[in-house]
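Risk register update: the risk of archive-format incompatibility is retired. Evidence:
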Amino acid sequence: MKISVKDVQGQQEAVLRVSPETNVLEVKEFVARGMGIPLAQQQIIFSGNALSDDGKKLADYAVTEGSVLYVLLKKPEPETTVLRDSTYRFLRQYYNESDSKKIVEHFMKRFNQSVTTLSLDDLERIATTFLQDEQKLLSM
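Archived output:
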């Protein structure tokens, strides 16, 4: 089925070919790739209701052929990074939105604390190991 996704400012619109089994997270990932709106800043709206559970299927929200979904931009969260987004996407497969955000916040805080305590020698060892591993992969 085809559905439309529009931003509320009316600046961008996309037509998606999806199935009723497509989940909300997959729609959000398309919006991130196709419309350039980061996952963490998206709120998907259909018929005045937020599609807040990323694991639910479009059919669970009664999205059908020709439906129009709207994307609201939420305030950007601090330090939106690839690591944060990837961790959030992974966690959303197993936890609800609220728990995923809490886990990501705690993880990022601990991660930043760990990285800032590394010495230059530690960073050099990590970089050297990474480059050696990368060279091994390329030589295969």
